[in-house]
Design brief:
mainly alpha, 243 residues
Length: 243
């Protein structure tokens, strides 16, 4: 659990999709899917926070942006956590691969799409405007329900709709993911069964992984970071389809 949490924390800091490491481990140990999902969400929150702290330099001057997008993400997380309690897992998991494919396509095409947007309009909204807030709300719903690859989706959406470097966008992504997971985790504490030992073990590992992942991710050129996002996303699709 500690090792899985460490790997997931590092992945979440650099790209996202750490849930695709820890969730299958919990299932393999024997935890029911809902208990595994709930405990996993809570356990990875500290790692998301440590990853965000590791990107603190890139967060300078972005706190208004974080507040606007974070509010949308938190509201979405509440809705997503509620859906987990009332819908069968197959309802959302059926569209997860399609969402990841969309995210990867957007990440790969981001430079080209950015140039097209600049050609159409002289200046993009500094915080993405209402379209990005709605997109982050929808991503928060997904993150509150299951969360795998929500970081990839956030990176893709912010990269296209905001005029900002990929590293600074990644810093915002880490904060948003932490807020979404924390919000849904708080909901789960009151209405779902939680395996607290699992939460503690994952939390310990994810904190270390988040710190290490931030150190690695901050030094990656945009091209390589985009490549890592694509590799992780493809691995996520394969794992979900073959599970």
């Amino acid at each position: 659990m500690v090792l899985a949490g460490m790997v997931a924390g590092g992945m979440n800091a650099v790209v996202g999709s750490g849930t695709l490491v820890t969730f299958p481990v919990l299932l393999a140990i024997g935890y029911p899917p809902v208990v595994a999902n709930v405990s996993n969400t809570l356990g990875l929150v500290p790692g998301s926070i440590s990853g965000a702290v590791g990107y603190r330099r890139e967060l300078v001057g972005q706190w208004v942006r974080v507040l606007r997008l974070g509010t949308a993400g938190v509201l979405g997380a509440v809705v997503g956590a509620g859906l987990l309690l009332v819908l069968p897992p197959s309802a959302f998991e059926a569209i997860v691969p399609a969402l990841i494919v969309l995210a990867l396509t957007l990440v790969v095409l981001q430079p080209w799409l950015t140039r097209k947007l600049v050609a159409i309009q002289e200046e993009r909204h500094p915080h993405g405007g209402l379209p990005l807030q709605l997109a982050i709300f929808a991503t928060g719903v997904y993150g509150g329900y299951f969360g795998a690859a929500q970081g990839v989706l956030m990176l893709a959406l912010m990269g296209i709709l905001m005029d900002e470097s990929l590293q600074r966008i990644n810093a915002v992504k880490n904060v948003l993911a932490a807020l979404v997971n924390l919000t849904s985790g708080i909901v789960f504490v009151f209405v779902a069964d939680v395996a607290w030992l699992v939460v503690l073990l994952l939390a310990g590992g994810s904190i270390v992984g988040g710190v290490l992942g931030a150190r690695v991710g901050r030094r990656m050129p945009a091209f390589w970071l985009r490549g890592v996002i694509v590799v992780v996303g493809i691995a996520a699709i394969v794992q979900i389809l073959t599970r």
